[in-house]
Amino acid sequence: MLKINVKTVFYIIILSTSLISCVKDVDFDQADNLSLSPVLEASLVYTEVEASQFSINDVELEIVRDSIANIEIFKDQFVKDNLVKAEFIFKTTNTILRTFNLQVDFLNNTDELQHTLSFDALSSSSGNEVVTEYIEIFEDDSLDDLKLVTKMVITLRLYPSSDDSILNENSSGKISLKSKGVFYFNIDV
After folding, report:
1. Is 164 left (phi over 0), alpha (psi -120 to 50) or beta?
2. Which of 7, 22, 158, 178 has the most beta carbons within 10 angstroms of its beta carbon?
3. Tens of pLDDT along 63-92?
4. Residue 150 half-sphere exposure toward CB, CA atoms < 13 A
5. Strands, DSSP E only, in the chain?
6. How far apart are CA 158 and CA 65, in angstroms?
7. In angstroms, what CA-CA distances link 120 with 60, 130, 154, 189?
8. Among candidate residues 106, 168, 101, the one with its CA nearest the CA of residue 142
9. Rounded distance between C-alpha atoms, residue 16 and residue 27, angstroms
10. Is pTM, for the whole model, over 0.85?
11. What's the pLDDT at 57?
């Protein structure tokens, strides 16, 4: 009786298929025209400010400002050569009964303004979270300006209340800001 080894039959089928199959010519020169388009997302800024921080000795502060210095991503030659688009996405969550204006100034290493953006974080009506999103897109000339940035100044401006009330040390609520950058590259190899 003939004993069939399954393993041997499998090898014979693979060998015969490879001997009679067709193979197209492979153009290895295509690798010379390779273009990659990676997208990188990175967290930029996160901050949270309590309503009570807008008051010192029962005097309401209309402006709170912070800055981020030594932004080094745009100093890298790879980024300068290959970055083709950037999106900055800002998301505020406000539970304070007031509207805020958020302004971001982008400065170069001699503190010259390269770009500014501004949007309002809408007021909460009852202490519930009100979410506001804003997207700033950098392309062409604005992208060239962004590549010169080494510092960001973030300014929160408190709009006056409709009932003349002021924020004090006992005021409740908070405003938070989250942001991220989406960076689009085009790399020709």
Report:
1. left
2. 158
3. 989 999 988 889 899 999 999 999 999 999
4. 9
5. 35-36, 39-50, 55-56, 59-60, 63-68, 83-94, 100-107, 113-121, 130-138, 151-158, 174-185, 187-188
6. 11
7. 19, 12, 13, 43
8. 106
9. 26
10. no
11. 87
For the chain, the residue count is 189
- Residue 45 in tokens: 């800024």
pLDDT greater than 60 at residue 163? yes
If you search the block for the tokens 């003349």, which residue do you land on? 164
Residue whose token pair is 């009786």: 1
| Residue 74 buriedness (CB in 10 A; 0-12 / 13-18 / 19+) | middle
Which among 55, 51, 39 has a CA at the least distance from the CA of 87?
Answer: 39
Amino acid at 158: L
Q: Are 173 and 124 in contact (CB under 8 A)?
A: yes
Q: Can you tell me which residue has the tokens 């981020």?
A: 68
